[in-house]
Design brief:
elongated; Serine Threonine Protein Phosphatase 5, Tetratricopeptide repeat; 4% strand; 2 strands; two-stranded antiparallel sheet; 62% helix
Length: 182
Amino acid sequence: MTTTRKHLAATFLLAGALSLAASLAFAASGGGSSTSGSSTPSCKSGTVWNPQKGKCEKASSSKLDDNTLYTEGRNLALAGRYDEALTALSAVRKPDSMALTMIGYSLRKMGKYEEGVAYYHKALALDPNNANTHEYLGEAYAEKGKLDLAKAELVKLSAICGTSCEQYRDLEKAIAGKPDES
């Protein structure tokens, strides 16, 4: 193999590794909170958007993988489309901490506070260091005036991701009575 071919092969390998690393970091962080579901078309109840096919299909018979269902559900939840989010998230076959967190988030935002908090606790049982779950649980406590419990979640976030991570800052704002709209 010539030096030029070796260099090209190494470049492609590095590019692939960097792409994979970025994808894994994105997934591990929960994808951030700025993504919205406004670009996802609305589907009738019980169906989810299949981006590969470009159409809605029945959630229970969907061939979409869990990651796609989670991503769709998360985006819909953050866009305020909670019923649709729950359809997608409930179709996840093996719900992990992040899926359970977003189910809890959707339920809480729909006014089903106790159900939402119960899902946050299920999520934390699977991953006690899920910063997103601690943030949302703390926000739920703050919304109900349980500031001592909200502050306890803030302390946990400080230990998990420090005081400069997005989750810590967002919960800190919620405790101060100035929550973000996401």
